[in-house]
Amino acid sequence: MESKIQSPEYAKMSHATAISLGLVNRRMYRGAVNRCVNLLVHYAEGCSANCAYCGLAKKRPGTYQEKSFIHVDWPIYSMDDIIQTINRAPAYVKRTCISMITNGKCRRDTLDMTRRLKAETRIPVSILISPTLMDRQDLIDMKEAGAEKVGIAIDLATPELFDKYRGKGVSGPHKWEKYWEIIRAALEIFGPLTWEHTSWSHG
Ligand code: SF4
S-S: 112 plus which of 8, 107, 135, 180, CB 3.0-4.6 Å? Predict the structure, then answer.
């Protein structure tokens, strides 16, 4: 039976965001704050890619529930609770960023989450996109849904390294050319690059 605890009704939230928003009772070193609400789409079956350095890669041992990007918890909350929490967040919280994974349901559900965040919160929404799943129309749909900007994490600096660690070398689906095709389309649709850092490297 398919779990009901999945996107678009639920999302994972980074541990640092959960601390900053008061959802997890911990303190950040030297009073640091996380200005971005980092969300990650969530499905029981997880990501179908195999990026060599990623804790969520399909071939890593263990169930998806036991895996983590970066060796810390990513607690799951309902979107209702996330939206309520954003709306009472401290003024230093300036943006929400939804991170996609490589999962066929992800495009539809990311649009749904973007529309809700746009309509029900006052801070801008970014999407860290998964180019492998997408075409130009998806970018247009994201903009129309309310995304202010998108991030695209290539992660590797040359076509050879990309193929070795994200593509054929790890039996993964990602292709260097596809990433650049989507970057070019995103530049046309969302405008030129900015260097504001809103999320972690992923996609
Ligand atoms: S697509 Fe993203 S989540 Fe999936 S394995 Fe690669 S880096 Fe990790």
Answer: 8
167 lines ligand 1 (CB under 6 A): no
Domain of residue 76: give its range. 2-198
CB of 102 closer than 6 angstroms to any ligand 1 atom = yes
Low-confidence spans in the chain with pLDDT less than 50: 198-199, 201, 203
Residue 65 counted as domain residue: yes
C-beta of 54 in contact with ligand 1 (< 6 A): yes
pLDDT tens for 59-91 read 887 776 766 666 678 999 999 999 999 999 999
3-state secondary structure labels for all residues of the chain: CCCCCCCCCEEEECHHHHHHCCCCCCCCHHHCCCCEEEEEECCCCCCCCCCCCCCCCCCCCCCHHHCCCCCCCCCEEEHHHHHHHHHCCCCCCCEEEEECCCCCCHHHHHHHHHHHHHHHCCCCEEEECCHHHCCHHHHHHHHHHCEEEEECCCCCCCHHHHHHHCCHHHCCCCCHHHHHHHHHHHHHHHCCCCCCCCCCCCC
